[in-house]
Description:
The chain is α+β, with helices and mostly antiparallel strands. The protein has a single domain (about 5-95), classed as Alpha-Beta Complex (Nucleoside Triphosphate Pyrophosphohydrolase). It is about 25% helix and about 25% strand. It has two helices and two strands; from the N terminus they run αββα. It has helices at about 5-20, 80-90; strands at about 20-35, 40-55. A two-stranded antiparallel ribbon has the order 1-2. The relative contact order is 0.18. The mean pLDDT is about 90.
Amino acid sequence: MECGETPEQAAVRELKEETGLEGRIHTLIGVTTSPGTLYPSILLVAYLVTNYSGSPAAGDDACDLAFFSRQHLPDVAFNTHDSFIRLYYSVLAPSSACP
């Protein structure tokens, strides 16, 4: 987050910077903390973003960008991200939840 930004504004800005997509926040998925290398604790906030527009393109923090079906999700680098994905499928998209 930049100074003066709300978490929601930061999420939408980061989405645009990292993917080239614009979207609208639908709902909060969750909030958690994780240990960091520069700081003892990092706050992570996950939102469900809908109504995308734009041309998908990897930003400066990514080497590639792709969409995956629930059945073919790749491994993710951080456990907290995996937790948010599982929370999404168990609470917000239960018809697609893991068995």
